[in-house]
Each structure stands twice: as C-alpha cells, then as structure tokens.
C-alpha cells in the first residue's frame, strides 16, 4: 500500500521499538536519512536501532554521535532508501526482507516490497523526504539532524550538480544550513578530501580511461590488482564514478570495478538526456535517470562488451533524435 | 567614502550611461555580477556597457545573450569585484583607474580607490551583494539575471564547498533557483566539464605533485612546456588550484603556474584555519582567507623556495597552536 507523508508521520508516531534498515554499500543518503529519522524518533521518546548489511565506514561515524541504539526486540521495521530487499544484503534480506512495515524511498525502481511504501521518485534524495516527514511529525530540527540530512541531500546530488537537483533541493539545503548543519565540514569530507591512496588510484584509473561511440561514452576500469598497486580499496572507488562523464562530449560515463568474485559492478552516469537506469535495467540493475548501476558476472573483456552493447542503442537513439 | 546597499541603489538609480568594469583574468563572479547588474540597469531604462582588460572566454558568453551594449560615452563608472585598480589591466587602469565612481566588492583587501565603495568583506561573492542590490533597486529578477548571479555565487564558493560559504549563500542560491536560474547547465559548465586537453594537463600536473611540511602543504607546478605536451593552455589552469588541498592532511594547497614572462603565479588554497591572503600578501599578492594569489618574478626553483618560506611560519604557527 502506498502512503503519503501525512500517513507516514502518523504511522511513525503511533509505533515504537523501531528497526531502521539501510542499503548495502551504504552512502550518505541511506545513512543520513536513517540517522536523521532515528534522532527524530528518539526526540519523540521512541526506541530505535539502525542496521546495515555492510559496515559503516569512518566518514559516516559523526552521524551516529550521541545517538543511543535500542537493545529491544524491534517491533516496527522501516527500510530507508532501499529500493529492493536484496539491497539489505543476504542476511538481513532473509531476516527482515519479508516483513518490512514501511519503506521510505525515492527510487522509481522500488519493487514495492514493504507493507506500506512512502515513495517520491522525483525527490533527489531520501533525505529530502525525511526532512519533510520530520517537519510533519513536529520534530525540532537540531544541528545534528540538519547535518545528517544535509549529508544525504548533498551526497545524492553530487553537491547540487546532478540532474536530479531541484529548486526544492536548494530550498531544503538552505533550511538545513539555517538549522545549523555543519555543511562546510560535511562538504570537505565528502567532496574535497582524497586520501593519498585514493589520489593514486584515481590517477591510475584515469590513465586507463577509454572512449567509445565517437567520444560519447567513456569507461574507466578498476581491477583488484590496482588496489594492491595503490594501497587503495573498493570503498574508495565510488568517487571515481563521476569522472568519466566530466570529459567534454561524454554522454554516458562508466566506472567498472572488479568485485571479489571476479564479476564487474558497472556504475553509469549520464547528464540526464540518456536514462542510465534503462541501460542498467537491461543487465539486471537499476537506479535513477542520471545515475544507475548493475553487476555483470563475466570477466573484464566480456563485461565491457556487454555494457557497451547495452549503451549503444541509447546513444544511437539520442543521435538520431538530434538529426 | 563607504556606502551601504541603500545608498548604492540610489546612486545607480540616479545616474545613467554606465560603464561596468570587470577584473582581468575574469571569473564567474566578476562577469556574473557585471552582467546581472547591467541587465538590472537596462530593465530600469539605463544605458550600460561592460569592459574587461582581458577577453571573456566562451564559457561566459551565455551571460551576455540579449544584453545590448551602449555606444554612448560613459558617465558613471562602476568597478565590480575589483579590489585594486591594477586588476583593471594596464590600459583600463590608466584610462579609468583614477575615476571610478563606485566600486562594489567583497574583497577585504580592497584598496578603497573609488569615489564611493560598497564593500561587504564577509560576502562569499560579489554576486550576493548584487542580488541584494537589485532587490533594493526593485529590479525584477528574470531567469537570465538569476543565471548570471548564480554563476557568481556558485563559482566563487566552489559550488558551496569553500569556507566562505554562509547560510545566506544557500538562501540566495535557493532564491535564484526559484527565479529560474539554469543551475544545472551552469554547474555542468563550470564544475563538471573537462576538455580532453585539460584532463591531460590535470593528469600531468597531479603526477608532479610534491608534499612539504609533513604533508601539510602540497604543490603542483604547471610549466609552459606542459601546455605544448597536452594541447592545453593557461586559461584552463585555474581549475587545478583546488586539487592539492583535496589531499587528506593538506592544510595549504599551492598551484604554481609559469606565466609568459617566466615568472610564477601562485594560487593558494586553505581550509580557512590558515589565512591564505596573509601568505599571499607577503609576496605582494592578496585575496581571501581560503583562497589567495601572488606572482613571483623568479624561476621555478626560486619561486618554490619563496612561496614555501612564506607558508612555513603559518603552518608552524598552526602547529604550535594545536599543541
């Protein structure tokens, strides 16, 4: 059943002992949304626990500062920014996937698996929905809550640069700044800081960038051996995803990264004229118009071939549309 | 004489045949501020002309679309975002430097050379001041004006990431988005697009990055020969300035670029704890706390030595302050 903001607020206010679930490969939006919602619920006297199928890396730890986790058996399960139960990870999918009471999400590809779903596919981030929800619930937006939400709002829009950014995104960002979000340090941490090992990985990846379809598609590929060479690791690769699209003339940017089992995760970025989620969907993945991903169970050459094959008709369609 | 916003608005409304002057090496703020002000004045029935000591590059041309330039002899001269008459360039400094009627600026280093100065050193950009000024003047903010102003607001804050970004910056950005600024394409153009030649220059410059003072200072150096090697050019180097500071642990990032006469322009970037303008001032330059520049008339080795010498006490001061 689909629920609106008002109904979602009532649901949350009328329940207790919450379990909030984040998606695996946690990003600023799933963590920022869950921690902001948790803080809001705690301020209303509720008990809350947050779980994620993957470990939270240290850059997210500030969002948990002073947030007490409940030890109680959860009685109301909320998935935040999770479009599909498989994104809970194998363990939590098995444990909770079939009994999510409420899903709050902004992915148009949401498979509607929860008992109740609050979905706003035009929202740039789940954090924007959580902001409106907390206002609806009468939660006082503290600087800490504002910081968690700002993290979601800014990271899911690439600091207001992605095509999903709306007027409302700017309005909410301004509100969060007014409420005391530490936007400077958050921006520094997520957008303006590179570890030395990441800087080395980035250089190596850029050296290997390849162009296809008359320069309209750029692909960079990160193999496991590049982690050894640079001292970098898989968690650091996400920031690479936006780089291929930055090159002038590129309509579809692709980051391919080799997973532990030898398969390749492909992250797609477009300027919005080409639907990245449509390309990803052909290979069993999903996402948004400007940013999507899929995993291909094949070696590097075969994976490259398959992703280019999925991209080709979209780039050619655009080409003929322009004529 | 210092004037406030209200007095500045009155001055502008009571004069005509304006000449608006931008600073050399024009950036998004000086051009965005001048074109927005020009459009506002034209909407009030005034005649306006804009001049700059350097040519405007193509990325700025959209701001001039549909803006008619007056051929009349200027009768009221306004310098926008120009802290010092020498930043008008040799010709215009000589021609207009001594008879600027009004200077609208946000540089704390402004040398107060105009008959009247409207200075707000805490403003992240001149464009923020122009926005408030246009509101004060009762100008209707069209999407075109909003786009010019958004360009200034976003470029002078590195898309809201620099330490000069305030709550007001976000509020004004939200207003400009509401007024129809084409923020997506502006952000793409200024922050998310690299020419292939720039991408090559960036790779080369990053390969040569050197660290000093226990990794707290990072320096990249662009020599004239690197332009030949990559097909890039001097205008493309400005984007490099932020890269050294991005490396974890770096407090002062430096871009040194060789000018045509063999001297080196040093662009400094800090996170705001260290005052970049103070370092630049030691070598005859200036700027803001987080971003400043100076030119050193010496070869690469000597210039490096001098800039490091200027940086050392600031980094050491900070070090002892931390103890």
List keywords for this structure.
homodimer, 323 residues, alpha/beta, inorganic pyrophosphatase (n-terminal core), Diaminopimelate Epimerase, Chain A, domain 1, 2 domains, six-stranded mixed beta sheet, five-stranded parallel beta sheet, 11 strands, 40% helix, 17% strand, disordered C terminus
Topology:
The structure is a homodimer of 323-residue chains.
Chain A: H1 5-13, E1 18-22, H2 28-43, E2 48-52, E3 76-80, H3 90-96, E4 102-105, E5 116-119, H4 126-136, H5 143-155, H6 167-178, H7 183-191, H8 196-207, E6 210-212, E7 217-222, H9 224-230, H10 243-246, E8 252-258, E9 264-270, H11 276-282, E10 286-287, E11 291-296, H12 300-322
Parallel strand pairs in A: 1-2, 1-3, 3-4, 4-5, 7-8
Antiparallel strand pairs in A: 6-7, 8-9, 9-11, 10-11
Helix pairs in contact in A: 1-4, 2-4, 2-5, 4-5, 5-6, 5-7, 8-9
Question: Can you describe this structure?
Answer:
Two copies of one chain form a homodimer. The N and C termini of chain A lie far apart (44 Å). In chain A, the strands form two sheets. A six-stranded mixed β-sheet of chain A has the order 6-7-8-9-11-10, with helices on both faces. In chain A, strands 2-1-3-4-5 form a five-stranded parallel β-sheet, covered by helices on one side. The first copy, chain A, is 40% helix and 17% strand. Residues 319-323 of chain A have low confidence and may be disordered. Chain A has 323 residues and is an alpha/beta fold. In chain A, helix 2 (28-43) packs parallel to helix 4 (126-136), helix 4 packs antiparallel against helix 5 (143-155) and helix 8 crosses helix 9 (224-230). Chain A contains twelve helices and eleven strands. Chain A has two domains: 5-191, Alpha-Beta Complex (inorganic pyrophosphatase (n-terminal core)), CATH 3.90.1640.10; 196-322, Diaminopimelate Epimerase, Chain A, domain 1 (Roll), CATH 3.10.310. Chain A has helices at residues 5-13, 28-43, 90-96, 126-136, 143-155, 167-178, 183-191, 196-207, 224-230, 243-246, 276-282, 300-322; strands spanning 18-22, 48-52, 76-80, 102-105, 116-119, 210-212, 217-222, 252-258, 264-270, 286-287, 291-296. The A-B interface holds A 158-161, 163, 165, 167, 170-171, 173-174, 177-178, 183-184, 187-188, 191-196, 199, 203, 206-207, 242, 245-249, 271-272 and B 158-161, 163, 165, 167, 170-171, 173-174, 177-178, 183-184, 187-188, 191-196, 199, 203, 206-207, 215, 242, 245-249, 271-272.
């Amino acid at each position: 059943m689909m629920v609106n903001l008002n109904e979602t607020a009532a649901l949350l206010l009328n329940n207790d002992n919450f379990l909030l679930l984040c998606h695996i490969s946690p990003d600023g939006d799933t963590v920022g949304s869950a921690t902001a919602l948790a803080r809001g619920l705690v301020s209303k006297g509720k008990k809350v626990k947050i779980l994620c199928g993957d470990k939270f890396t240290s850059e997210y730890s500030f969002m948990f500062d002073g947030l007490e986790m409940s030890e109680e058996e959860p009685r109301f399960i909320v998935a935040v920014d999770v479009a599909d139960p498989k994104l809970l990870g194998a363990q939590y999918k098995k444990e909770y996937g079939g009994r999510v009471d409420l899903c709050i999400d902004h992915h148009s590809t949401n498979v509607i698996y929860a008992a109740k779903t609050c979905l706003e596919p035009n929202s740039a981030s789940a954090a924007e929905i959580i902001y409106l929800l907390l206002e609806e619930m009468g939660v006082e937006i503290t600087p800490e809550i504002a910081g968690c939400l700002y993290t979601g709002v800014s990271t899911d829009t690439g600091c207001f640069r992605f095509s999903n950014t709306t007027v409302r995104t700017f309005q909410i960002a301004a509100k969060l700044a007014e409420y005391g979000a530490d936007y400077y340090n958050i921006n520094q941490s997520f957008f303006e800081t590179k570890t030395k090992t990441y800087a080395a990985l980035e250089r190596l990846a850029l050296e290997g960038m390849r162009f296809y379809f008359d320069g309209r598609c750029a692909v960079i590929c990160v193999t496991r051996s590049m982690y050894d060479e640079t001292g970098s690791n898989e968690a650091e690769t996400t920031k690479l995803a936006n780089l291929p699209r930055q090159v002038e003339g590129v309509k579809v940017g692709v980051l391919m990264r080799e997973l532990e089992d030898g398969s390749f995760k492909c992250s797609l970025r477009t300027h919005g004229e080409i639907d990245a989620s449509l390309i990803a969907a052909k290979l069993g993945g999903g996402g948004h118009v400007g940013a999507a991903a899929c995993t291909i169970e094949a070696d590097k050459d075969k994976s490259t071939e398959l992703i280019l094959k999925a991209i080709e008709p979209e780039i050619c369609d655009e080409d003929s549309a322009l004529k």
